[in-house]
Design brief:
302 residues; alpha/beta; Rossmann fold; eight-stranded mixed beta sheet; two-stranded antiparallel sheet; 11 helices; binds S-adenosylmethionine
Length: 302
């Protein structure tokens, strides 16, 4: 075992621009993964058809929604922190009556595409998309009834994602919950093979670092979150991960067939999920977690 050597840190502005460029260029490449543009892994439970990938992807949205523990007989405003092109927001609005969702992303292309995909009447009044950095939200303190981040909090810098967690805490109303679903490293010592895969995955998805589960939970506690619930959902997402090689190969050969000369982004897009799958086999060093927590009703700070 050796200590983790993470990806080379980049300056904050280059880092943010890298994410924007990546998602602007690779945006449409998520369509072969999900016709509804769910840009995350799926969640399996009894009753969800494992041969229907889209159903498992939607179930992940459902899991996030249920962990927010909303009282659904009153109006709630939710914030989707790192909304992609809005699939989770569309799912939530379609499956609830009084919930409004604001989607936040730093990628202008995603805001435009999310709006194009959300023109149905049911979405018009209850779903908006804004160009917003989840580390610096232009929202008032205590203005949001619940927030979730599906495979997006990993983009905050550092292993504890502290800026993301602090900003989420600030905008949540007392008693409101935050739900995060993402890959997390475990422990501090990692093998050479794991580090090799880790660096490839981070590079392919333009990430500095995944969160470490222990430091992330500790940061939550330090900030003031309570009722922190941690589920290692690796086996729940495993069935959807098994679709990765097939979808990635299909995607890669379709790009070769189109005779694209510069395949850099596509290569990263192909390599990251496949290496991510291998990385996920290192169960003692990495796992997919769903973590939720509540902002206390009575607070010492803020
Ligand atoms: C893998 S995608 C997940 C999208 C969406 N949550 C879903 O599951 O369909 C990661 C998202 O995080 C967003 N993101 C990364 N850094 C961000 C930041 N600082 N503020 C807001 N969004 C960010 C990206 O723009 C992208 O939309």
């Amino acid at each position: 075992m050796i200590n983790t050597v993470n990806t080379t840190p980049t300056s904050p502005s280059n880092y943010k621009q890298g994410i924007i460029d990546y998602y602007s260029e690779a945006g449409m490449d998520y369509e072969p993964w999900s016709r509804r543009f769910n840009m995350h892994f799926g969640y399996f439970r009894l009753g969800v058809n494992p041969f229907n990938r889209e159903a498992m992807l939607d179930e992940m949205n459902n899991q996030a929604l249920s962990r927010l523990q909303l009282s659904l007989n009153k109006a709630n405003t939710l914030l989707d922190l790192g909304c992609g092109v809005g699939a989770s927001g569309r799912f939530i609005v379609s499956n609830t009556e009084l919930v409004t969702v604001i989607g936040a992303t730093i990628v202008p292309w995603q805001v435009k595409k999310a709006k194009e995909l959300s023109t149905d009447r049911e979405f018009q009044e209850r779903l908006t998309f804004e160009l917003m950095d989840y580390c610096k939200l232009p929202l008032a303190n205590q203005s949001i009834d619940g927030a979730y981040a599906l495979e997006s909090s990993c983009y905050d810098k550092g292993k504890d994602k502290r800026r993301f967690l602090e900003e989420s805490f600030r905008i949540l109303k007392p008693g409101a919950r935050l739900v995060v679903a993402d890959g997390f490293t475990k422990g501090e010592k990692h093998t050479r093979l794991f580090n090799f895969l880790y660096r490839k995955v981070c590079k392919g998805w333009m990430l500095d670092d995944f969160a470490g589960v222990d430091v992330f939970v500790k940061a939550m506690r330090d900030i003031g979150y309570e009722d922190i619930q941690v589920q290692d959902a690796s086996w729940r997402v495993a069935l959807s991960v098994m679709y990765v090689p097939w979808v990635s190969l299909k995607y890669f050969f379709s790009k070769i067939f189109l005779n694209k000369s510069d395949m850099k982004i596509e290569m990263g897009h192909f390599v990251a999920p496949v290496f991510g799958m291998l990385m996920g086999l290192h169960r003692s060093q990495y796992g997919y977690h769903i973590i939720s927590a509540r902002k206390p009703i009575k607070q010492d700070r803020q």
